[in-house]
Structure prediction request, 481 residues.
Amino acid sequence: MRLNKIKNLLFLFFIFIVTANAQEPVAGKAWSMEQCIDYALKNNISVKQSELNTEISEVNLKQSKANLLPELNGSASHLYDFGLNIDRVTNELTKQEMLSENLALNTDVNLFSGWQNINNIKQNRYNYQAGKFDIDKMKNDISLNVASDYLQILYNIESLENAKNQMGITAAQVDRTQKLVDAGAAAKGTLLDIQAQLATEELNVTNAQNNLDISYLTLAQLLNMSSAEGFTIVKPEINIAGDALLTSNPTQIYNSAVANLPEMKSADLKVKSAERGVSSAWGALSPRLSLVASYGTSYSSLPSQLSSLPAFEGYAPNGSYTSRGDTVLSPLFSNPTFKKASFMDQYKDNANKYFGFNLTVPIFNRFQTKLAIDKAKIQKINAELTVESTKLQIQKNIQQAFADASAALKNYASSQKALIAMEESFKYTEQKFNVGMVNTTDYNTAKNKLITSQSQVLQAKYQFVFKTKVLDFYQGKPLKF
Prediction:
């Protein structure tokens, strides 16, 4: 009884350890973008599925290599025959019941078949190598998605901070206006207008918080986490210098991408694979030469071993006569007798062996080989078109990212200038509002313009940061701050 309790305690302890190790380490920890990317690459289901597909390609490669080995098959039978059979000794029909056993060992060695096996090995090797690059491509896509979601969180954090700051300013203005109304120095309508502005900005804070929560959830789901609770990220310092420039042009970035991106290497390998597929299909037109060999033996329950030779027993008329009418006599012999040979003797005496060569020449197989060749050629053309399509897509992505980054940089510079001017304008409007020189409508209009300017600066900033990260990615640079 005590032993069972100890076993139960050990089992519970084991479950606790496994569960503790399986928990996602998010609580109380701020994640950097590099950590998010590493975690996603280890836990994302799409990456795992891509790895499994590559493992299948590796198995196919091993199978194609194994096809070069000889084929060896063994067979055995244990049969009960009733009724009409053939006596193996006399080769005559018999109705005796018979028990028989047969053993055989056969081999077939492919000596030549148009180099199909060799071409299949090379084709599967290219497919396996392409599969590994497909995994890298999948990881790159996941990394870019993580970077995008990570930057979206940073954008939403700053948006929330700006919304809270603006709400704080308006809340202070409400308190000030309330005191003026209480003192009879300001109209009640002024207070109501400011309170309405505060309610709008409180809604902005709520929306900004919701956007932040959703962006955290989106990233957590991409990382394949069960929950975003307690998940936070590191907030790096992101400053864009006033003289920031894009140091590389689209052509330079494209040349680097085509030479290094895994999708290009995968596409090139798939072309080589398709070429080997064509060669393998042509090989089916070649004669097939193989070496065959066999060893077999058997056992029968019927008498099969001679036990006594025929004995001379005299002469007897055979029913015929000579020309003179004399009876013709023929010698008489006793019938030979047989006995059942032993199990091991039969397996030794009944052994049958052979070896030789088989040559198969394809003549007509309903155009299957010709159509297989045509299909392989089409697949090769399609693989070549995939290479060109991949190049065009990369070029398009780079040109779009470069154009977006250039536009975002210009927008950031101009919106930052506009923000500085708007801040000064709002400060001046606020001072005039405090002394009653402008009404609440003008004050709220100036405040909303300031909020819009801050939003435009943030959008341009993170648009530029993300697009530059995309361009860095195409140049083979790591995604990090």
Observations:
- The chain has one domain: 23-68+110-286+310-336+368-474.
- Residues 1-23 have pLDDT under 50 and may be disordered.
- DSSP finds ten helices and twelve strands in the chain.
